[in-house]
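Reply to dn_fold:

You asked what the input looked like. This is it:
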Amino acid sequence: MNGAGVAACSRRQDGREFAGANSRHHDARGLSELLADHARTVANERISLADIADFLGTRSIGAWLLILALPMALPVPMPGISVLFGVPLMMISVQLALGGRRAWLPAFVLRRSIERAEYVALIARMQPALERFERLVRPRASWLASDWAKVPVGVICFVLAAIITLPIPLGHLAPGTAICLLALGFMEHDGIVIGVGFTAAVLAFVIVTLASAGAVDALRHWFLG
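and this is what came back:
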């Protein structure tokens, strides 16, 4: 299929592999720069996941995990965004665990959208964190970033993404940060960052478990006295 055909498939939002108009040439810019450019130039009243996919072009599963998880690493995400991004995170994590290289989402997920003003504000809040992440990584300890790591990373990201969708106060923060570290380390073949991501995932599980137990205990005292 030629480049125009691939772009047309993406615009139809039929749930195929994220290819998009930019796949006709390689863009060496980092994700932070790409997203900033998109936020400056986007004209639609509402921005869907398909719009983001079309702009970014063909990107690895790791890149999509990072894009979807980074808003969750912010202290106070916008209302409803945990489910908007958490469900695609779960789907893409499964694909990573199964050995996939390119992200795929069904059309009904690609149609999920937020208002343009919310999208621009979200990118502005994500930008400093993403730039810091990009400065941290470089290829090292590559044995931790090889193909065998896809299964544990994918499974861990799936569980963390499932936690993100739950109505736990600030339950998105630690899981979102862990997924960002795992995704970025995998993208850049940085085994050290992946190792830090594994540690962050364990801490996220502990934090969310303690927070959930505390919430349940508070509710029990509230209703039962």
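The chain has one domain: 3-224.
Hope that clears it up.
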